[in-house]
Amino acid sequence: MDQRTRRVGAVATAVVAAVTVLAGCSDEAAPGGEGKTSASSSPAAGAGETGAAAPASGVDRSTAEKAVAGWVAAVIKGDAGEACLLMAEPAAGSGPARVGSEETCGDDAPQRKRLEQTLGQFKESFTPDPPSDAPEVAVARTPATGQKVTVPADRITVDGQGLDEIVLSHSTGVTEDQLDIKVESSRIEGSWYVTNLHFDIG
User: pTM to 2 decimals?
Assistant: First the structure.
């Protein structure tokens, strides 16, 4: 395994672990839009690639872009509770959808503790240079396919820097065309949650 694979592969492993935690975020189904959304005031409805900000406290699941922006910001801040509240596992077969709730994402919740162990590697990989205590995360409006929106990393910016470029800056021997990162958001009972991560090294 070369150095490139070791450095980026560690984050890919964390991706798998985080997605696994989604299944345990909640045993209850929970109850969303689009524009360029930012994780720090609310986007103008129907705006194209305009900037917007999510409330500093609490989570905003009204659009896929807001959910993704809030989740990325929470990861960078190391806020596992907020990240958990923005994550879910869609219904599969006869099983119900599972979404993050105050109960399952609370300080002592096992799901949150598992997520805290996983998010550390994301925090490092998603943090721009120079780092910020209050990262401004913006997500460009992305077309939905049914009840899902898949946002490529190059449509996500952190303090003005592309997320794909930030991840590359923390990697060794990886070029832009070799790294494919996408964040998937799904609409569940009217609200949007981060439901999957695609992290491929070509």
Answer: 0.76
